[in-house]
Amino acid sequence: MKIVGAKVVVLGSQGVGKTSLVTRYETKTFSRNTSSTIGASFSHIVIVINGNKVRMQVWDTAGQERFRSMAPMYYRGAHAALLVFDITKLQTFNDIQTWVHELSSRVGEGLMLVLVGNKCDLDQRREVARDVAQQYAASIGAIFLETSAMDETGIDEMFEIIATEMLRKSDDVDSMVHVYSPEPATKSTIVLNNSASSLNDSSLPQAQNSCC
Ligand SMILES: Nc1nc2c(ncn2[C@@H]2O[C@H](COP(=O)(O)OP(=O)(O)OP(=O)(O)O)[C@@H](O)[C@H]2O)c(=O)[nH]1
Ligand SMILES: [Mg+2]
């Protein structure tokens, strides 16, 4: 049994629901009145799969254009990137291409891409067809899933997919994911998804709860 650490960055245009997705996972809540993220905010998510623990540092970045130049600070060293668009806004899907282009060299180094079509509860206002997004994801080597921070669709799955892949990679000697130490088996499902305060892992880069 092992403990794996991974840095996960959440990218995407303003208002697509990046913060709402992370908040929904962490607190099981949803708000219609969110504040636009300033810079980025940071949280820890811990997932246990078959007794193996994956500790994710999740960097929720700001979608506002004025913070765009800060993005490399957050995706540098990342093991996985959640590329989030809003299925009701075609432009936010098109914007993903810019991120993919920017991250392309990192993908060659093993960065995992997950394309996330959020707000799937608003299907009647859909501007991005599911199969179009699915095909695009396949073309860039990304996993695709649709989510709703509002009704909780796909939220657990989104983080479980990453955790599973991080564990798989940790079996590979050339993996970018670092295995910290063996630990006895506990539970076979997600057991914890809370804040940094419950963790004390000096191997992970130091970070603040909220950063700008
Ligand atoms: N209907 C619906 N609304 C959502 C969903 N996710 C987020 N929203 C709404 O979309 C708006 C923006 O959500 P945020 O989570 O702040 O978006 P963001 O991507 O973090 O935005 P920035 O921090 O500015 O980049 C808020 O009004 C949310 O309530 C969803 O799944 N369904
Ligand atoms: Mg935000």
From TrEMBL:
Which Gene Ontology terms cover its molecular function? Answer: GTP binding; GTPase activity
Which InterPro entries does UniProt cross-reference here? P-loop_NTPase, Small_GTP-bd, Small_GTPase
Superkingdom of source: Eukaryota
* PROSITE patterns per record: ARF, RAB, RAS
Protein keywords: Nucleotide-binding
Q: Which CDD domains match?
A: Rab (cd00154)
- Family, similarity comment: Belongs to the small GTPase superfamily. Rab family.
Concerning NCBIfam families, the annotation shows: small_GTP (TIGR00231)
Stated name of the protein: Putative ras-related protein RABF2b isoform X3
